[in-house]
C-alpha cells in the first residue's frame, strides 16, 4: 500500500518506487479530521482538487486513489486488512503531528511494516547538523552546510510500470466549499507553473522577487506544500546562477529542520524571554485584530495584503512580512494570533514556514530580525509597490488615487476616499511603543 500524504504526485517519488518493487500497489489518502481543524476552506478545496487530479493520473495507469475520512491509526490498519497489503509505504513526515501520527500508525500496524522512503525536502530534516551534532539556529550557516551536504537527483519513478490495484468506491469527497478562485491543482499543473517561471521570470528573480505589483515569484508554494512537485525536481533544473532562488528553497528546508529539532517552536517562542513582553489583549485588541484580518487598517499596503490573503488564499512574501510586522509591532498583538489566521487562510499554509516566518518577523525566532528593525508600512509600500498597482488591485476604494496619495490617502486635502478607513494607529507613535516594549525584555537579565 502506498499511503499518500504530502507527496501527491507520481513523478520523482522514491516511496512509490519502493512500494512498486514489492508487487501490486493500492493507493490511499486519509482525510484526517485533526488536520482539517487548522485548515480553512481554501486549503481544503485545493487539497481535494489535488486529490482529484492524483486520482485521475492514477486512473490513466489503471489504478485509483482510495480516500477515507478518519483517524489514520484506525483507517490505515483497516485498509491493510481489507486489501491484504503486506507493507505500507510513505514519504517520511518530520512535522510534530505527522511524526507522532506515523509512530502511532506503525504501532497499530503490528507486523505489517510502515516503510519510510524520502521526504518532502531535498535534504531530510535532521541530516544537516553542526560537526558536534547540534542543530543550526542561524540560516546562513545552515545554508552553507546544506549546500555542502548536497541532494540526490530526481527519482525515476515510472507510474506506467507499476501494477496498480484499482479500488471501487471511496473516491474523493465532493464537499461543497465556499470557493475563491484557486490555482489549478495537481502534478501537471505544478510542472506547467514551474516551466512558465523558468522561461519567464527566473532570470529576473533576484531583482523582482520583492515586488508584489509585478507578481513574478514562482507561486509554487501550494504545490510544494502538498508535494505535487518535489524541491529536488526544481533543484535539478537550476544552475549556479540561480543562487537566490535556491536560497529561498533552503529557507523552507531550514525551517523544517528547526521545527524537527524544536517541535514546540510551532507554538512556543523560540526565544523564551520574548514571551514575557507586554502584548495587547481584550476587546480593543480584538477590534484591532479584526481590522487587520479584514484589511481595514487604513494602511494601504497592509490592507491590500490582507485582502489578497482572503481573496486568493495566498500572499506575496514581502507583504507577508509587512502585514505580520504591522500586527506585532504596530498593534502589539502576539504573533501566534496572526500565525493562526494565516494558517487558516493560506493554501500553502505550512506549519514550519508559517510559524517560523512569523517568529522571524516578530523578532522571537531563529535569525530574528533585530527588534529595532520595524517596517514602516508607508515606506515599504512606496519602495515595493512604487506605482501602487498592487494596492489598486486589492483595495478598490483607492483605485482612483495615484502617486503619494495611494500610499498615504489620509494626507490628501480631501482626506481618504469615502469607504476607506483612517489609519487605526499612528505608525511613528507605535514604533516607539514597540521599541520600549522590546527593550523591557531585552535589557532584563
Ligand atoms: P518564491 O519566491 O517563488 O520561492 C520559491 C519557494 O521557496 C516557495 O514556494 C517556498 O517553498 C520557498 N520559500 C520562499 N521564501 C520562503 C521563506 N521565507 N520561508 C520558507 N520558504 C520560502 N511559505 C509557505 O510555503 N507556507 C506558509 O505557510 C508560509 N507562511 C509565511 C508566513 C510569514 C509571516 C512569512 C514572512 C513567510 C511565510 N512563508 C510561507 C514563506 C513565503 O512567504 C512563501 O513561501 C512564498 O511567498 C511563496 O510564494 P512563491 O512560491 O511564489 O515563492
Automatic annotation (TrEMBL):
The reaction(s) this protein catalyses: cyclobutadipyrimidine (in DNA) = 2 pyrimidine residues (in DNA)
Keyword check for Flavoprotein: yes
Residue numbers binding FAD: 205, 217-221, 245, 248-255, 348-350
GO biological process, one term: photoreactive repair
Assigned keywords, A-Z: Chromophore, FAD, Flavoprotein, Lyase
Cofactor(s) the protein requires to work: FAD; (6R)-5,10-methylene-5,6,7,8-tetrahydrofolate
EC number of the protein: 4.1.99.3
Keyword Flavoprotein applies: yes
Pfam families attached to this UniProt entry: DNA_photolyase, FAD_binding_7
Domain annotation Photolyase/cryptochrome alpha/beta: ranges: 1-125
Taxonomic superkingdom: Bacteria
Alphabetical list of SUPFAM superfamilies matching this protein: Cryptochrome/photolyase FAD-binding domain, Cryptochrome/photolyase, N-terminal domain
Molecular function as annotated in GO: deoxyribodipyrimidine photo-lyase activity; DNA binding; FAD binding
Entry's transmembrane regions: none
Cofactor binding remark: Binds 1 FAD per subunit.
Family: Belongs to the DNA photolyase family.
Protein name: Deoxyribodipyrimidine photo-lyase
Amino acid at each position: 500500500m502506498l499511503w499518500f500524504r504530502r507527496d501527491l504526485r507520481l513523478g520523482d517519488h522514491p516511496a512509490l518506487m519502493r512500494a512498486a518493487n514489492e508487487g501490486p500497489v493500492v493507493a490511499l489518502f486519509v482525510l484526517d479530521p485533526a488536520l482539517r481543524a487548522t485548515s480553512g476552506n481554501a486549503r481544503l478545496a485545493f487539497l481535494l482538487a489535488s486529490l482529484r487530479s492524483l486520482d485521475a493520473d492514477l486512473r490513466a495507469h489503471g489504478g485509483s486513489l482510495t480516500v477515507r475520512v478518519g483517524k489514520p491509526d484506525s483507517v490505515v490498519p483497516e485498509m491493510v486488512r481489507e486489501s491484504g497489503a503486506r507493507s505500507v509505504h510513505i514519504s517520511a513526515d518530520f512535522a510534530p503531528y505527522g511524526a507522532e501520527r506515523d509512530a502511532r500508525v506503525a504501532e497499530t500496524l503490528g507486523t505489517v511494516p510502515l516503510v519510510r522512503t524520502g521526504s518532502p525536502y531535498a535534504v531530510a530534516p535532521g541530516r544537516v547538523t553542526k560537526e558536534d551534532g547540534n542543530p543550526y539556529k542561524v540560516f546562513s550557516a545552515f545554508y552553507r552546510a546544506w549546500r555542502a551536504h548536497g541532494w540526490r537527483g530526481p527519482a525515476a519513478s515510472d507510474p506506467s510500470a507499476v501494477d496498480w490495484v484499482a479500488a471501487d468506491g471511496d473516491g474523493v469527497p465532493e464537499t461543497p466549499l465556499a470557493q475563491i478562485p484557486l490555482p489549478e491543482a495537481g502534478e501537471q499543473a505544478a510542472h506547467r507553473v514551474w516551466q512558465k517561471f523558468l522561461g519567464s521570470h527566473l532570470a529576473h528573480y533576484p531583482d523582482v522577487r520583492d515586488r508584489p505589483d509585478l507578481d513574478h515569484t514562482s507561486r509554487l508554494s501550494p504545490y510544494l506544500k502538498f508535494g505535487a512537485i518535489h524541491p529536488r525536481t526544481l533543484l535539478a533544473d537550476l544552475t549556479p546562477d540561480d543562487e537566490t532562488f535556491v536560497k529561498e528553497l533552503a529557507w523552507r528546508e531550514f525551517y523544517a529542520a528547526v521545527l524537527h529539532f524544536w517541535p514546540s517552536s510551532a507554538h512556543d517562542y523560540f526565544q523564551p524571554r520574548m514571551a514575557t513582553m507586554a502584548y495587547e489583549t481584550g476587546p480593543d485588541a480584538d477590534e484591532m485584530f479584526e481590522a487587520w484580518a479584514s484589511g481595514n487598517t487604513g494602511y494601504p499596503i497592509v490592507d491590500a495584503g490582507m485582502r489578497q490573503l482572503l481573496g486568493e488564499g495566498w500572499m506575496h512574501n514581502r507583504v507577508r512580512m509587512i502585514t505580520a510586522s504591522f500586527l506585532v509591532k504596530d498593534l502589539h498583538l502576539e504573533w501566534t494570533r496572526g500565525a493562526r489566521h494565516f494558517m487558516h487562510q493560506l493554501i500553502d499554509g505550512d506549519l514550519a514556514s508559517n510559524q517560523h516566518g512569523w517568529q522571524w518577523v516578530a523578532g522571537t525566532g531563529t535569525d530574528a530580525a533585530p527588534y529595532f528593525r520595524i517596517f514602516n508600512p508607508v515606506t515599504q509600500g512606496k519602495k515595493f509597490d512604487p506605482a501602487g498597482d498592487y494596492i489598486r488591485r486589492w483595495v478598490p476604494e483607492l483605485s482612483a488615487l495615484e502617486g503619494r496619495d495611494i500610499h498615504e490617502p489620509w494626507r490628501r486635502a480631501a482626506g481618504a476616499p469615502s469607504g476607506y478607513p483612517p489609519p487605526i494607529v499612528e505608525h511613528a507613535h507605535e514604533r516607539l511603543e514597540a521599541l520600549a516594549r522590546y527593550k523591557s525584555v531585552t535589557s532584563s537579565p
